[in-house]
């Protein structure tokens, strides 16, 4: 039986993860060189920023009492 907190977690996780996936796919669209101009340095910066955020999420799930790092991305 799923309790109220777990039900809320599942509901929000489904919404937020699907939203994040859609936004990541939109970022992936930026890789189309016939529509956009960029160099490897800029692409690496985007990938590194996304990977850093994923690593922070992994750490938070492994240590839920850990802090939050709020930094904005900028090329």
Task: Describe, in short, the structure shown.
This protein is 65% helix and 0% strand. With 75 residues, it is an all-alpha fold.
Describe the structure.
This protein has a domain at 36-62. The N and C termini lie far apart (47 Å). 65% of the residues lie in helices and 0% in strands. The protein is built from two helices and no strands.
Order of SSEs: HH
The number of strands is 0
**Which regions contain 5 or more consecutive residues with pLDDT less than 50?**
none
Oligomer: single chain
- Structural Rg: 16 Å
Structural class estimated from helices and strands: mainly alpha
What do the pLDDT scores average to? 93
Helix content: 55-70%
Give the N-terminus to C-terminus distance in angstroms.
47 Å
Biggest sheet architecture: none
